[in-house]
Amino acid sequence: MYNHQEIDSKWQKKWEEEKVYRALNPEETEKEPFYCLVEFPFPSGAGLHVGHPRSYTAIDVIARKKRAEGKNVLYPMGWDAFGLPTEQYAIKTGKSPAEVTKENVDNFRKQLKSLGLSFDWEREVNTTDPEYYKWTQWMFLEFYKAGLAYVDEREVWWCEELGTVLANEEVINGKSERGDFPCVRKPMRQWMIRITDYAEKLLDGLNEVDFLPQVEKQQRDWIGRSEGAEIEFSVENSAEKIRVFTTRPDTLFGVTYLVLAPEHRLVQSLVSDEQKSEVDNYLVEVLNKDEQERLGNEKEKTGVFLGTYAVNPVNGEKVPIWIGDYVLVNAGTGAVMAVPAHDERDFEFAKKFDLPVKQVIESEEECFTESGVLVNSGEFSGMKSEEAKLKIVEKLEKEEVGEKKISYRLRDWVFSRQRYWGEPFPIVWVKGLENFDLAKKGEIFGELPEKPIVFEENGESWIAMPVREKDLPLKLPEVEDYAPAGDGKSALAKAENWVNVYYNLESGEVMEAKGDLPEGWVEGKREIDTMPNWAGSCWYFLRYLDPKNEKEFVSKEKLDYWMPVDWYNGGMEHTTLHLLYSRFWHRFLFDRGWLPVAEPYAKRTSHGLILAEGGEKMSKSKGNVVNPDEIVQEFGADTLRVYELFIGPFSEAVPWSNNGVIGVRRFLDRVLKMDEFLSNDENQEVLRARHKMVKEVLMEIDEMKFNVAVAELMKFVNVVYKEKKISKESLLEFAKVLDFFAPHVANELAEKVGFGELLEKQNLPEFDENLVIDEEIEIAIQVNGKLRGSIKVSIDLPREEILEKAKNEPNVAKFIEGEIKKEIFVPGKLVNFVV
Ligand code: ANZ
After folding, report:
1. CB of 696 closer than 6 A to ligand 1?
2. How far apart are CA 688 and CA 691, in angstroms?
3. How far apart are the first and last CA of the chain?
4. H-assigned helices in 19-162
5. pTM to 2 decimals?
6. CB 230: neighbour CB atoms within 10 A?
7. For the segment 590-624, what is each residue's pLDDT rounded down to a tens digit?
8. Which residues contact 550 (CB under 8 A, 6 or more apart)?
9. Cα(247) to centroid of ligand 1, in Å?
10. 339 CA to middle of ligand 1, Å?
11. Residue 829 has pLDDT above 90, yes or no
């Protein structure tokens, strides 16, 4: 048993002394850059979780291999440290969130350092550092100037009892997680960012990058582009018009009713007197559900008749108008034309409320949702859907009751939080615009939004003015108590000296509102919402390039050298939000001329979760969380590292196993005793096994098959133990590969046989193709006795796998499409399929 504590700290100290993981700046090197990135963690009070190192060790292997290939590797780490849990902890304990964050970060850093990960710690960033969020604020002002930031009323969860706004994850089935009090949806003024303007660019960008297929698909689905039409229905005995969005204008003749979202702005003006009380009752019930509850697929659809009728523009037919919870106010136009014969949601609704079903696409089925040939559709009957879509929309366009339309599922980004622990908006709301000389604004502030951002409250109108760039960062003020101020406002509202200011419209200067309002100044209030913690994580990978730059968020030279990120690994749970937001943010800054490339990440991969022993999710409440510190304490860093790589296919969710951990530790103990077999002459079996191992492992690293790579290392060690002989050269070549996975043990082993340098400074081990191939044989493949191809396989490949490979050989596959009657296998020579 080796002494892991001694060995771990010994090598960690050497790496630090020799700065082997330091990424060189472009002016210091001729080497090509390689930028690999993992999602930086939120430094929670609970410390590191065994899930974190799965991604970190995997990309550490990649980083180490790339260094050995001669690349200048950047592998950085930092902290995404704003957020709710820290604020809540601060509220409970009375400590300031900044203090809590510092403690948590120190702990996380110590934990990560104990794993021997090859991060360049000189580039650490922290989103809560004012020198960092200064630039987040500066970037927000870019959105503001470009007209992509605006304010709007949006619904948030509100808990009367707690007197606070709650985040989605704090509300469970309409009750507060804390205290179990009822919560309601309440509209509040929010900052919004117009990400929807970028829907097309974000889709196009996906063609330029190499993302895991399911990641790319999720991005596309989230943006949700659909082509269709907007169609206008008039309302009987009313001047109102109802616009619907549909992807199936070819089914327009099959409309038997319309459905509006309960929040649709026309509901109150369309409801008939007889239906009014029923509708109002329904609204109370449904408006307190959030989108997820309403959309749940298995959920029974609900709705009520408004008592009024609309007119189908294509045939003048009269159809009833309903409201229903399956129609979302924020999608399309918030109203649908229901075609129960060809849409399942409409069909379900029609069955439940006994509404007519009218077939307009030929089919035997009751509800047929595909394209087809039109029937019962007047002059369009007999046309195919594709043609009818064009023709019907053409007709509607001519009559000015409809038009082609592309709709997106993507919504604008709600960019405010009613929280203390976030970036303050660099915005002052000012009153007294009578004195505002609009002509001068450009001289003082540079660019301002074309349309001023105005907010009306209690009959007063406020306009959003920027804090000057030279006054950034706008720091979070200290407050006594971090609990929300009630009324939906964050604790920032309590910092009155900070909130209430005078604003100088001549110079943009801001000062505390003390004494009488001086001439030339207007009253102002600082924005008391803060940014969501997605903001800081949208651009952290840029700051790593130049973390101490005080003049720019990153220098141009550094951007030109490093960007884009070559390889970004992160959780599948971040595919739709973080990945999309950060691509958007980056693309926007690119359009503003600040960045050299449009897409930030050339490649994106994803890892699976680590589950508890029984296959459940690890969670504090179940008491099944494995603490990585304990594993490192008891077994050493390399055991944890190798175990996390060996645990299973990288992209899949896998359960933890303590036996597995012990097995890995045994393997490492065996490794450290391999010097006992040191011999002057080379054993041919070991030599061959070594070349093969090197070849396979290097390949498997690139394919992220880390578990298979570890198995290759184990296989090699078994051969050495069997032959009881290994040359110094072979042992060092093995150590170089092992260094990617278990760097402490690898360096120790190399030192034991007299190697005087760090393995981290070595080049990639080489392999001799001849020595690898020797172990392979060629197998001829016949179908019905005729030669159709051949495959190369390793000598020890089992029969089943050879047959499988043979069947998949393209030229063979086409001859064996039917049933295979017989498989003839002549070991080492040929396979014959009889079909
Ligand atoms: C009539 C129709 C007939 C439809 C048919 C489909 C099939 P995607 O592709 O997801 O964008 N829809 C439109 N707005 C909606 C809203 N606010 N809430 C819920 N559903 C809405 O879906 C577009 C289709 O979803 C639209 O096309 C509309 O139903 C419905 F045989 O219109 B369709």
Report:
1. no
2. 5
3. 57
4. 52-68, 84-93, 97-113, 130-145
5. 0.85
6. 20
7. 999 999 999 999 999 999 999 999 899 988 788 88
8. 131
9. 6
10. 10
11. no
